[in-house]
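User: I'm preparing a small set of examples for a lab meeting where we compare how different chains pack in three dimensions. I only have the primary sequence for this one, and I'd like the structure in token form so I can line it up with the others. Please keep the answer compact; I'll paste it straight into my notes.
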Amino acid sequence: MHLISSPMESSAGSALVRIRDLVYRVAGIFQPDNRLNFLQERCSRRMKAVGVPSLRGYLERLTAHPDRELELRQLLNEITVGETCFFRNQPQIEAVRRVVLPCLLEAKKILPFRNLRIWSAGCSTGEEPYTLAILLLEESLGMLKNCKTEVIATDLNDRSLARAQAGVYGQYALRNVSPAILQKYFTPLGDQFQLCDEVKAKVTFRQLNLLDDSKMVFMKAIDVIFCCNVLIYFDGASKRRVIQHFLNNVNPGGYFFLGYSESLFGVNDDFRLVHFPGSTGYHKPTRNGLVK
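Assistant: Understood. Below is the structure token output for the 292-residue chain.
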């Protein structure tokens, strides 16, 4: 038996697909058919907030209303909420400490001024870039002495960035933080913890759409890029586009890290896979083709 949808159901389905396509065009985030219920639930939240009773009306709000750009950002905020924590991937952090930083500093020793820039792309609520900032501070009197360091953190989600800049975290986000690091860099604040200003000062937060070519081209002179569990929401074409920007923006000899289950297989062959103890990463060859 074949069920025939009512005109109202067909109209709603068509509107949802068009919203799905709009999100993909703007942000590269593709919701496959088996995740349309998730998209509809997130649209319903925003429809209730702005008082729009139908998906068709909400599509019009996203495309024809004077506040359409603001509302699209609000919808993207609903779609892109991610879960993370401090020191989430300890083997990656140790790879940066023990291998990546020494290699980068060795290459920069001939320069009159040593600068080190790390980019956390898709930083969510800030745990990853602040972890990197703590690592840099811990090494500031050792191998990073006389080296200017900076962490740039970007995300599409306005609300996540606001939480990151506040620097207040609960125990679950801090579950991998050692007692010594917790005491050194955090202050109890009720049942939460406030990150100290010294760490916060190391990180610059920016709102950035990874598919915005006009802004991505300016993310230059980066030594290390972290983009963990972000590209899993992108289809192949969007991944290749973003990875090409990363390749262009990272310095020759620089490094690129993805999440546990992610890889560049079938996406990009210009980065070289590097194996670290308990982890993997990618390396951009130097101009003479060598991987240092």
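A couple of notes for your slides: Residues 7-79 form a domain with the Chemotaxis Receptor Methyltransferase Cher; domain 1 fold (CATH 1.10.155). The two ends are 64 Å apart (CA to CA).

User: Perfect, thanks.
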